[in-house]
Specification:
With 325 residues, the chain is α/β, with parallel strands linked by helices. It has two domains: 33-127 and 252-320, 3-Layer(aba) Sandwich (D-Maltodextrin-Binding Protein, domain 2), CATH 3.40.190; 129-243, Periplasmic binding protein-like II (D-Maltodextrin-Binding Protein, domain 2, 3-Layer(aba) Sandwich), CATH 3.40.190.10. It has helices at residues 5-29, 46-62, 77-84, 98-106, 114-117, 142-151, 166-178, 190-199, 209-218, 264-278, 281-289, 299-320, and strands at 35-39, 66-70, 92-97, 118-127, 129-134, 157-160, 183-186, 204-208, 221-226, 252-259, 293-294. A six-stranded mixed beta sheet has the order 2-1-3-10-4-11, sandwiched between helices. Helix 2 (46-62) crosses helix 10, helix 4 (98-106) packs across helix 12 (299-320) and helix 7 (166-178) packs across helix 12 (299-320). The longest helix has 25 residues, at 5-29. The radius of gyration is 23 Å and the shape is elongated.
Length: 325
């Protein structure tokens, strides 16, 4: 049977529109069940706190539970691998962080490519870092520290959290850019690092601002510089390291990603809801209390940010010949 041309074109247009209609309906129905936000670190840490804040916001906004699934181990590689191999339907998300950009080069046996195998949804924040020392240490400024380490090669220890974390990589970058000869001492827990710095077992430390700020304000520690390119709201009187070491910049970061090929309509829905949370004064205040500087990038810029961070730290790892433990 021959159909009139006008009716044929109408039917053809309807058929062509079906996939788009289906995708829109899928996004409108999302989430259809509880959503997992996988975290590669134990409960109670800074990354976990971020995930729980965002998860609660999304639960309240979207009417389904967004629950946190902590899967620590292998510097968050176990969690990342589980997510990239999950169904790409928006019901499994990952709280990505700076460690994932480092791991892409640090580990040469990963069974996934983080940049290729994830769909960036929304950046959340930066985690400011600070270089600080025991207040009894003779070098009292960043410039003096650099001079002291060059005249006393190998005699100064800089404590950091574990190898591959943001502070550890910041310390490696600092060594490279200044040419100093120091001993990096990675700690499993930042609390123990702070304790040993107080006791004088190490002289200098690179870490997050939050664990050190009370001791800095009490005068036990002296802050030498913040690692971000601009001053920190938590330590407004402390200059960026870049004022002394031109071009230096390092900080932790966090954001939500999903498995590759997650429908763009779902990705955009989550992006909009998360950014609405980041603009909410209560959420912003809680992130600030946790030591997080809000970073709300457009999706395309967040994807570029992850790729740039991966390339940046890959260069540092190769130049310093850093090996995973």
């Amino acid at each position: 049977m021959n159909l009139p041309r006008r009716r044929f074109l109408h039917l053809a247009a309807g058929v062509a529109a079906l996939p788009a209609v289906s995708r829109i309906a899928q996004a409108q129905a999302y989430p259809a069940r509880p959503v997992r936000i996988v975290v590669g670190f134990p409960a109670g840490g800074q990354i976990d706190i971020i995930a729980r804040l965002i998860g609660q916001w999304l639960s309240d906004r979207l009417g389904q539970q967004f629950f946190i699934d902590n899967r620590p181990g292998a510097a968050s590689n176990i969690a990342a691998e589980a997510v990239v191999h999950s169904p790409a339907d928006g019901h499994t998300l990952f709280l990505a962080n700076g460690t994932n950009a480092v791991n892409a080069t640090l580990y040469d046996n990963l069974r996934f490519n983080f940049v290729r195998d994830t769909a960036p949804i929304a950046s959340i924040g930066r985690i400011p870092l600070v270089l600080y020392e025991n207040s009894s240490f003779p070098a009292k400024t960043l410039s003096e520290l650099i001079v002291y380490t060059k005249t006393n090669p190998g005699k100064v220890s800089i404590a950091t959290p574990p190898k591959g974390t943001g502070p550890y990589m910041a310390a490696e970058l600092f060594k490279m850019m200044t040419g100093i000869d120091v001993v990096l001492v990675p700690y499993r827990a930042e609390a123990q690092m702070v304790t040993d710095l107080l006791g004088g077992q190490v002289q200098v430390a690179f870490g997050g601002i939050s664990p050190a700020i009370a001791h800095i304000k009490a005068g036990n520690f002296r802050a030498l510089g913040v690692a971000a390119a601009v001053r920190s709201a938590e330590l407004p009187e402390v200059s960026p390291i870049a004022d002394t070491v031109s071009g230096f910049e390092a900080s932790g970061w966090s954001g939500i990603v999903a498995p590759r090929n997650t429908p763009v309509e779902i990705v955009e829905k989550l992006h909009g809801e998360i950014n609405a949370g980041l603009a909410d004064p209560k959420v912003m205040a809680r992130l600030t209390d946790a030591g997080i500087t809000v970073l709300a990038l457009p999706r395309g810029e967040f994807a570029k940010f992850i790729a740039d961070e991966t390339e940046k730290w890959g260069k540092v790892i190769r130049a310093a010949n850093i090996k995973a433990e």
